[in-house]
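FORM 7B - TANDEM STRUCTURE REPORT

SECTION 1: FIRST PROTEIN
SEQUENCE AND TOKENS:
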Amino acid sequence: MALLSFVISLALPRLEQLYLRFVFWLDQDRVEREIAGLGARAYLEGKTLRLATWPLPPSTPGALGQPPPQPELGEPVRLTLPEGWRVVVEPPILFRPDGACSGGSVAIESGEVRRSFRLDAPRCRLK
């Protein structure tokens, strides 16, 4: 009985870590699929969509050292992100109704974990 208790005490922390990694992977995969589907969404909705950094940084537009506000092109995309996650997009990427996009780099951040990839114009496929 004591041996069984010892083995269980060693295995439980590892199972929890494995579970947390699995949940993280599922969340990351869902966010990537949402980004990958933006071209089709723009086509189906018949409008230009703009993917930019989300959630927005805590800076105020027009504050000292900030660039002046630019006219926004396209409807902003608000991704469904798990709490504490962020998507950084440089420069903002436009998805047009004809299926083309402007291209750029995307990084998905969660705590200390960061997954980066490029979306190359004109089709912006995730690789």
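SECTION 2: SECOND PROTEIN
SEQUENCE AND TOKENS:
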Amino acid sequence: MKSYNKICLIAAIIVSIVINGCNPKTIPLKGNYVTNPIEFTSAKSSDSLWLDVTHVFAEKGLDVKKIDKKKGLIVSQETSFISAYTFEDKDGKLKDPEAWVVLQKVFIKKKEWEPKTIYSEWSIQINQIENGVTLIKLNPFIVCIYHPNMFTSAETRGQSTGNLEKLINSTLLK
């Protein structure tokens, strides 16, 4: 009889943890961030831009997963951004204005969860659109996973702050 009560007690504790951990509250972002691919043009040739983009990727630790020159596509490997993220303050301003990624805050019972995994994949398309003009499209895909305990997790989409895109744009326009 005692072992039956222990099993029921353990099951009740596990169910309670799962129920309390499954409904996190997320605070929506107030700022305007990159939600669509960013586009800009350059007077450089597409070959020159290919070299510049791969150089920026290498310099910033973004490994290239795929290069398809026929489609004009460069895709980065999934890269950890755990050291390059920030949250917003109560006014919607970035706490770290130099961060590349901004995340929603996630809470349960006023306890804020810390992100455990943040990864991103950046897709850059480079296409010659007319004589002397090349179009560059940057499209980030950012995922953040919170693991507050061993039973629960929550996955949210992060947003690009636009800082990496500005860096690439300034590099390509030199």
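SECTION 3: OBSERVATIONS ON SECOND PROTEIN
Helices lie at 2-21, 46-59, 163-172.
The longest strand covers residues 115-130.

SECTION 4: SIGNATURE
Preparer initials: ____
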